[in-house]
Amino acid sequence: QKPAKLLPPVRIRVSPFLINIKLKIVFWAIFFMFFLYLNMIKPVWSTIKTFSGTSLKCPKQMKLNENLTADFDKSMSMLSLKKGDKQIGYEILERENNCIKGVDIEVTDNADRRRGLGSLLKALSVMIMKENNLKHVYIFALPEAVKFHYINGFRTANRSHEAAASCMKSLLKSNTPFDNLKTRAEALWLRISLKDQKAVDEADKLYDEFLKSVFEKGISLKDANFPSTLDMRLTSKNVSKNSSYYNNILNKFGIDYTI
To answer: Is the overall model pTM greater than 0.85, yes or no?
Structure first.
């Protein structure tokens, strides 16, 4: 048997023109990343006394991308976003034991909401939570803000039997096809009325199931019939799960901080 003939090696010639293009792409990519790095700002922290007498580390004024300024108003415990001299968004924060409580949040213009300024305010409050080694961010979400906070990692966390009962009542009166959830809600409502704390915890989990189903099915706000305010909580565990999401928001606006 004759040995197989070896084929001559194939030589591929790369055009100098293509090499130049690749080098230019690499150069501009490195330059762009370096430019972004130069435009990042690292927060500088100061400690204030809150209305409740507790201390809270908060960031000093920061010049952000898109001509924005983020500042913490110490007298009002308010995280403020401004463009020039005009305030375009804010969140009022309080420290309560081992958590940050978001009392009120607003972005004044629809166009600014679409730019993600609501998410920026939420990322800043998470940044403050982490810097102060706190465990949770609590908020009281209006019906139109429930989906926004759910997407941002917040979950139901009723702080009283009355609030949990309100959740179950609103679920039962919702115009939704979730009969199994309604049957369970009715049983929990009775236990909550008897001040069963375990029933409150179960009601939180049940309402999160309800929220997930509502958003997956695209059910309207009117038919979902959310409570007038919903107690919601973002835990440090959920922050860790969604850290890349929050870091991307901070980086987008030029803040050099890792959550």
So the answer is: no
